Amino acid sequence: MVAGLPAAPAVWCSGLRKRYRRRTAVDDVSFTVGRGEVVGLLGPNGAGKTTVIKILLGLVRPDAGDVLLLGRPARDPQARARVGYLPELFRYQLWLTAAETLALHARLAGVAVPAGERRECLATVGLADRAGDRVGGFSKGMQQRLGLAVALVARPELVVLDEPTSALDPIGRADVRDLLLALKSRQVTVLLNSHLIGEVERVCDRVVILDKGKVAASGTLAELLGQRELRLRLDAVSPEAKERLAAAGRVTRSGDTFTVALPADQDVAAVPDLVADLVALGVRVHAVEPGRISLEERLLDILRAEPGGDRR
Ligand SMILES: Nc1ncnc2c1ncn2[C@@H]1O[C@H](COP(=O)(O)OP(=O)(O)OP(=O)(O)O)[C@@H](O)[C@H]1O
Ligand SMILES: [Mg+2]
Questions:
Q1: Which of 19, 159, 167, 207 is a plausible cystine mate for 84, CB 3.0–4.6 Å?
Q2: Which stretches make up the ABC transporter domain (predicted)?
Q3: Is 300 inside any structural domain?
Q4: Residue 23 in contact with ligand 1 by CB distance below 6 A
């Protein structure tokens, strides 16, 4: 009977609350992460991101609320066996080598991972040539890379990464981005938390923004970023061409620059079709530039909006 049902979301949580003495860290947080989705958890320092992640993984007991991980209660060790986790602050056994650390964590997860696959996992995080070196001699960024390998080694269905790139150099960040895209293409679900908004924008399907323990906004990037703009530098614009521009979206003009506000749900052919039609109408097209407000700008807008108000 159960076979025909759609798979439960990778993460489902509802009404999470956590107080530390008089300080409320998490205040009625609910969200879902679908299977195969890459979701970013964003928000300022102290917003409650790490606390939410720890509640999801059963590392912090919430005062209220429910969590299902891969369709099972978070307390169930079977649910956690399919989850890879990179903590925000961690230290592995300094006397173990990188290869031994991975072998240990695969064993702890109860998954038989052949040595070749473990080596490959170290290679994906750029530590292939340091496999036999002790963790105690690793730099901060190398430890973070090892942490990523630990999160990935037991072939998880859900990967939770608390600031996976905070210690990485620019190449390391780009590598992690590729790694996340590779996970996405393999339908592995990722929940990640990062202050590098540009990165989140590039890899995440959806974001959940936390502020002072509450969900301040959530949605797909298209929903949060709304309309896209298209800036065109044109001359010889006839009245018919102006009509064609207006049909694409609301137009504003400054000199020879026309800015068209494209609807969020436009199809991929909208821009090339518009340009082709303009050329056919005799317009000289000097430049076509996409414009979009960045996630960073949107995030700042949301966080600066009326403090304490309902901003959902
Ligand atoms: N173990 C703890 N004891 C007391 N207070 C805590 C504890 N853990 C977190 N807090 C408090 O809960 C709030 C949320 O902290 P949390 O670590 O979840 O924030 P965050 O969003 O992950 O921040 P950052 O971006 O700095 O990592 C903060 O006010 C913090 O001081
Ligand atoms: Mg944190």
A1: 159
A2: 11-237
A3: no
A4: yes
Least confident of 17-21, 102-106, 249-253: 249-253
Q: Is the Cβ atom of 71 under 6 angstroms away from ligand 1?
A: no
> Does 70 share its domain with 110?
yes
Same domain, 198 and 96: yes
Q: Which tokens belong to 42?
A: 């964003």
What are the CA-CA distances from residue 149 to residues 22, 85, 213, 297 (Å)? 37, 10, 30, 32
For residue 1, name the pLDDT band (cuts at 50, 70, 90).
low
| Domain end call among 170, 189, 223 | 223
Structure tokens given for 174: 């780009």
What does the radius of gyration of the chain's CA atoms come to, in whole angstroms? 23
> What is the domain-level CATH number for residue 129?
3.40.50.300
Q: For residue 198, give the nearest of 294, 291, 290 by alpha carbon.
A: 294
Nearest CA to ligand 1 atom 12: 25
pLDDT on residue 45:
94
Looking at the structure of the chain, the number of domains it has is 2
Closest residue by CA, ligand 1 atom 17:
50
Kindly report the protein residue whose alpha carbon is nearest to atom 13 of ligand 1.
Answer: 25
Reported pTM: 0.81
Q: In this model, does residue 278 exceed pLDDT 90?
A: yes
Its domain, for residue 99, covers 7-223
Contacts 24+ apart (CB under 8 A), 1-7: 7/35, 7/71
Tell me the pLDDT band of 224, cut-offs 50, 70 and 90.
confident
Which 3-state string (H, E, C) describes 14-38? EEEEEEECCEEEEEEEEEEECCCCE
Whether residue 301 is contained in a domain is answered as: no
**148, 282: one domain:** no
- Residue 116 has a pLDDT of 95
Considering the domain boundaries, does residue 304 fall inside one?
no
| C-alpha span between 291 and 84 (Å, rounded) | 36
Is 108 inside a domain boundary? yes
Residues 231, 217 share a domain: no
